[in-house]
Amino acid sequence: MRNEDRCRISGYRYEKMLKIKDLGEFGFINRLNPKETVTGLKLGIGDDAAVISPPEGFDLVITTDMLMEGKHFLSDTNPYAIGYRSMCANLSDIAAMGAIPKFYFISLGIDPERDFDYVENIYNGLNSLALQFNTHLAGGDTIKSEKTVLSITLIGYVEKSMAIKREGKIEAKDLIVYIGPLGYSGAGLEVIKNKIDGFDEQVEAFLYPYPQVIAGRILLQSKVVRVMMDNSDGLSNCIENLVIKNGFGALLFEKQIFDERLDAIAEATNKDYLDFVFNGGEDFGLVAVVEKDGFLDLTYFLERALFDSKVKVIGEVIEGEKIVLKRLNDSFLVIEKSGYVQF
């Protein structure tokens, strides 16, 4: 029996699966245009450029992130997860500045032979996370590509001259704080690649990470943060940028980093769990150097406000430009900078 007949008998109207090439560029854009009115967006999709009006007393914060099939996600990855992870990467950059995300633009490279349903699910993934933070699509571009490529530009607002940076004045005895999962994304990818059962939380962290936008705003308002960035390229990269480049060293505590689940995944894949922590990346947690006294008063409030997100003091700033890990057995290990490298 043909599909047309099967659908007719069951009471459904048969439609051929729509290809992107069947829509054409403007049909494609029209299908994805949310056609909504958003405060601050004076002109959106449909014109040569968007017009955005930031609120008085705020700076614009702008970030761009690109993800490519085969490099950042597997070819058989659920398209919804592709969109979700892409949006998370950008929201996480905005969170690291303590800013409020507001609008995004997406440039998409896609095979025109792909079903439109595939692209629609990418956009559904993007929007499902973006709308949690009142962030709206304002424009974009498309191009023919053999592999799926997404480039997202996200625009946010932050109070004038208040954005938190990577470079700043830090001091010995300052605390090094981590908010969010640590090492779970890299471990989750290994679980998927090696088809290991029993580690759903780590797989979830890889496919559907969560940006720490709320934590970023709380930390900005607290005024105890000296420097901060998001963990997109591994903890060693973060410590290098926040501590070493600001003229100091870091003493990290393994008792605050060790995770039995990560250790089990490492053993099953013949790896060291510390590789997930220091070099894995894409956890999209926040790493911050904070004033000791002020942050201890803030910890309880942060944990209440962030629900499931873990808040840990993982180390302290020390003299000497090196990264040292105090092991569980009280020995010391010097951590060489690595992290995820793009080129």
UniProtKB/TrEMBL annotation:
Q: Give TM regions.
A: none
* SUPFAM superfamilies in the record: PurM C-terminal domain-like, PurM N-terminal domain-like
Q: Which residues bind Mg(2+) 2?
A: D65, D93
Stretches assigned to the PurM-like C-terminal domain: 174-325
Sequence ranges assigned to domain PurM-like N-terminal in this UniProt record: 46-158
Tell me its EC number(s), please: 2.7.4.16
Provide this UniProt record's keywords sorted from A to Z.
ATP-binding, Kinase, Magnesium, Metal-binding, Nucleotide-binding, Thiamine biosynthesis, Transferase
Family, as annotated: Belongs to the thiamine-monophosphate kinase family.
Q: What does this protein do?
A: Catalyzes the ATP-dependent phosphorylation of thiamine-monophosphate (TMP) to form thiamine-pyrophosphate (TPP), the active form of vitamin B1.
Its protein name is Thiamine-monophosphate kinase
